[in-house]
């Protein structure tokens, strides 16, 4: 798969197939999210629910496979991104943008399943339509502990898989530890979020707006990263 992704791209002379596909899908996913948000604003709950679920599942599947194959996050830690510009620009401009992009991608991947679950919990079906239900919505303490223990188990299983089949690497371990730590942090923040917005409907609306902002910023950082890597400073 790495060989296919590394082939010359079709958008720019300095791009690769993987980079071009990634950027195009970033445009598509962001467009789908913004359209689904517009559906929610128009009280089209059922259409919003179906579109956001399909787009988020597709995004998770693609980006997990893509970033796992290219290991861009690990490459960022090792300084092997293939940047062809001056070292000063790399250190002061490109690397900070890339780090912001990877952070936003991680947050997006975490928020996607979180918002799906939170949305299901905060809605009910009335006359065949999905509508937000008003009222307090809290997670039980037993469920909260089960989720954290499950995340710990998944992290341990992933580390074992990496060690046995992909080779031990400090960069890989750090990258995956940060991903699972971020997920655990978001789950832990749910308790604080419940106190801030105890009403489930209001919580979903507020978190939805924040999530859409993160996805929009992800597209901006993705565009900047793509331009600097493959248009402005392609590696010769």
Topology record:
Blueprint: H1 2-5, H2 17-41, H3 45-70, H4 72-78, H5 87-122, E1 123-126, E2 129-132, H6 141-166, H7 170-196, H8 200-232
What attributes does this structure have?
236 residues; mainly alpha; two-stranded antiparallel ribbon; 8 helices; 2 strands
Please, could you describe this protein's structure?
The protein has 236 residues and is mainly alpha-helical. It has eight helices and two strands. The chain folds into two domains: 167 residues; 60 residues. It has a two-stranded antiparallel ribbon with strand order 1-2. Strand 1 and strand 2 form a beta hairpin. The protein is globular and about 60 Å long. About 4% of the residues have low confidence.
């Amino acid at each position: 798969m790495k060989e296919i992704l590394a082939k010359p791209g079709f958008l720019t002379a300095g791009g690769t197939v993987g980079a071009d596909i990634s950027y195009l899908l970033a445009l598509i996913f962001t467009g789908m999210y913004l359209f689904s948000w517009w559906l929610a604003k128009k009280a089209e709950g059922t259409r919003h629910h179906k579109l956001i679920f399909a787009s988020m599942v597709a995004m998770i599947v693609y980006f997990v496979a893509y970033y796992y194959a290219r290991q861009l996050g690990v490459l960022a830690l090792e300084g092997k991104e293939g940047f062809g510009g001056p070292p000063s620009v790399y250190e002061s401009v490109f690397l900070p943008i890339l780090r912001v992009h990877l952070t936003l991608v991680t947050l997006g991947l975490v928020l996607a399943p979180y918002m799906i679950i939170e949305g299901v919990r905060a809605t009910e079906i009335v006359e065949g339509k999905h509508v937000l239900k008003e009222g307090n919505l809290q997670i039980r303490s037993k469920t909260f502990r089960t989720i954290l223990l499950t995340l710990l188990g998944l992290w341990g299983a992933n580390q074992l898989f990496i060690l046995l089949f992909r080779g031990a690497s400090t960069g890989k371990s750090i990258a995956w530890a940060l991903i699972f730590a971020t997920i655990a942090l978001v789950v832990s923040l749910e308790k604080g979020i419940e106190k801030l917005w105890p009403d489930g409907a209001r919580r979903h609306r507020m978190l939805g707006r924040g999530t859409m902002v993160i996805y929009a910023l992800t597209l901006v950082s993705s565009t900047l990263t793509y331009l600097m890597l493959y248009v402005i400073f392609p590696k010769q």
